[in-house]
């Protein structure tokens, strides 16, 4: 799969994508809720905006071919609430498809790329973003994929 951040550069204006404003207009809370100018954003709009969310050098932006907007993130940009095995992978269960708290499905993630720490379980998703598993998903993942023998 081609990196979407690199692909975006081929569609931008010759001078590049311009930062729309120095102000942070969007904020993503630790529980996965999105705010626009400190007001709750409906999940369907959050899902739409998440499709153009990028992490570049530790900063978050919504990027279109003509402009970009700063986004502040309290913890992680995506809270992952469920997963299932990739049907193509079949019984092996080496590849997972995650669902976020705003209802978006992530591309297939290899189990080997998932990071388990004392603080949580994290999965690299797309465009430099990392998602954190919520509590229920965390315990399910531990029971299914981690061995304590």
What does this structure look like?
With 149 residues, the chain is of the alpha+beta class. Helices cover 17% and strands 39% of the residues. Strands 3-2-1-6-5-4 form a six-stranded mixed β-sheet, covered by helices on one side. The chain has a six-stranded mixed β-sheet with strand order 9-8-7-12-11-10. The protein is elongated, with a radius of gyration of 16 Å. The model has no long low-confidence stretch (mean pLDDT 85).
Helix content: 10-25%
Shape: elongated
Content-based structural category:
alpha+beta
Record the strand order, biggest sheet.
3-2-1-6-5-4
Query: Which regions have little confidence, pLDDT < 50, spanning 5+ residues?
Result: none
**Number of helices, counting only DSSP H or I runs of 4 residues or more:** 3
Distance between the termini: 36 Å
Strand content: 35-45%
Topology as a string of helices (H) and strands (E): HEEEHEEEEEEEEEH
Number of strands: 12
Radius of gyration, in Å, reads: 16 Å
Q: Give the quaternary arrangement of the chains.
A: single chain
Tell me about the largest β-sheet: 6 strands, mixed
**Overall mean pLDDT score?**
85
Short key terms for the protein model shown above:
149 residues, alpha+beta, 6-stranded mixed beta sheet, elongated
């Amino acid at each position: 799969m081609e990196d979407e951040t690199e692909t975006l550069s081929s569609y931008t204006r010759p001078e590049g994508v311009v930062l729309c404003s120095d102000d942070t207009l969007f904020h993503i809370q630790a529980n996965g809720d999105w705010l626009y100018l400190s007001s709750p954003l409906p999940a369907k709009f959050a899902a739409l905006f998440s499709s153009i969310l990028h992490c570049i050098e530790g900063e978050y932006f919504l990027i279109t071919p003509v402009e970009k907007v700063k986004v502040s993130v309290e913890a992680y940009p995506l809270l992952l609430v469920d997963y299932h095995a990739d049907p193509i992978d079949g019984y092996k269960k080496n590849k997972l498809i995650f669902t976020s708290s705003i209802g978006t499905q992530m591309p297939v993630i290899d189990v080997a790329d998932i990071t388990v720490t004392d603080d949580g379980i994290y999965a690299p998703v797309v465009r430099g973003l990392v998602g954190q598993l919520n509590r229920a998903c965390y315990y399910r993942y531990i029971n299914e994929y981690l061995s304590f023998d």
